[in-house]
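[recover] target loaded
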């Protein structure tokens, strides 16, 4: 085995990134396998991480925010943190996996997976090159504690200074961008995308998304958007949130003259983004990356405390989004953009400046070069 990709199922994004890299490497003829590391090592830990992150973020956001801020403050120690302790308990089974696969290169799309490799590398029990990928527009806590990393992929050159400030060596930092599925790197003409999806050619199409779990969308706010004095068509993607999908279907049925399309979990979001004029969404790292690649202006709603708030700050500072909040509700944000074509064009120019249309290919090129020069 030449390349082993390790992911952690804490949200959909880390796994989606891992799968996109796996397919690219396989297409290049590089033997590669992708594993959810905690599903393999300890399913209880996997389920706990997956559920606790969502519960903290959704029901106790202030607590989650304080924890994230504390961890992000630089008060971390490689020897004394909870995940290092948990990973130390998991190393026996994981080391057995590494002996069986004998990878030359290990790619981690989540810092917890990278910590597990780090525990073995610092003890001389793993000799593979370690590449970490930060899948948000910030530098997550814990990355700076991983002194055995050989390569570190971040979303933008604008984050290099922050990474170095947190103690990560400049020579291992590669601001290549966050890899996503290849279909997001290709743009379809808006008219063709609308034709394929059955949207009207002269509407303003607003795409509402809440991530894989559909968290963050509010049906009564969607109803307000339709009151904006424009010909608006709504496409609402609810993911696996079945209750939310039912709520939006009731809204659609109560407004028979409105154009509302309601979807569950779909695999053609790339086409919807090509068809849309504005995206309304939480600022998850993968969603942000996909929207940037599509040149799609965003109105951000309900960011999860911690990393998504950092993603929002990045987008605002780069001039690539608008934030809807209590004092500036969603319908007003939509109306502002629909009535200010110059503002939208300015946002699109900023988006083109920060998007990374070659991120996936550049990452595979980096891995291929390292393997070619490896004396493993």
């Amino acid at each position: 085995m030449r390349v082993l990709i390790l992911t952690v199922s804490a949200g959909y994004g880390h796994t989606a990134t891992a799968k996109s890299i796996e397919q690219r490497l396989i297409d290049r003829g590089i033997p590669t396998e992708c594993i959810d590391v905690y599903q393999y090592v300890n399913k209880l830990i996997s389920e706990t991480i997956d559920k606790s992150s969502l519960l903290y973020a959704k029901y106790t956001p202030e607590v989650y925010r304080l924890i994230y801020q504390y961890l992000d403050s630089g008060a971390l120690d490689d020897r004394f943190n909870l995940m290092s302790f948990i990973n130390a308990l998991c190393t026996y089974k994981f080391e057995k996996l590494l002996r069986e696969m004998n990878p030359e290169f290990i790619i981690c799309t989540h810092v917890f997976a990278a910590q597990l490799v780090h525990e073995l590398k610092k003890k001389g029990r793993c000799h593979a090159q370690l590449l970490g990928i930060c899948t948000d527009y910030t530098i997550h806590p814990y990355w700076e504690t991983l002194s055995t990393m050989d390569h570190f992929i971040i979303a933008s050159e604008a984050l290099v200074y922050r990474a170095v400030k947190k103690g990560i060596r400049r020579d291992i930092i590669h601001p290549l961008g966050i890899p996503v599925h290849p279909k997001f790197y290709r743009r379809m003409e808006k008219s063709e995308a609308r034709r394929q999806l059955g949207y009207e050619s002269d509407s303003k199409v607003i795409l509402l998304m809440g991530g894989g779990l559909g968290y963050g969308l509010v049906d009564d706010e969607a109803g307000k958007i339709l009151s904006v004095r424009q010909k608006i068509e709504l496409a609402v993607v609810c993911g696996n949130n079945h209750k939310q999908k039912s709520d939006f279907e009731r809204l659609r049925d109560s407004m028979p003259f409105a154009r509302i399309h309601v979807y569950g979990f779909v695999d053609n979001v790339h086409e919807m983004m090509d068809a849309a004029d504005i995206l309304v969404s939480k600022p998850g790292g993968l969603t942000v990356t996909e929207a940037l690649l599509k040149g799609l202006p965003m109105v951000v709603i309900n960011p999860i405390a911690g990393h998504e708030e950092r993603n929002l700050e990045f987008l605002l500072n780069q001039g690539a989004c608008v934030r809807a909040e209590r004092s500036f509700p969603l319908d007003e944000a939509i109306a502002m953009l629909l009535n200010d074509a110059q503002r939208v064009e300015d946002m699109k120019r900023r988006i083109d400046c920060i998007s990374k249309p070659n991120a996936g290919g550049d990452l595979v090129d980096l891995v291929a070069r390292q393997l070619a020069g490896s004396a493993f």
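[recover] notes: The mean pLDDT is 86.
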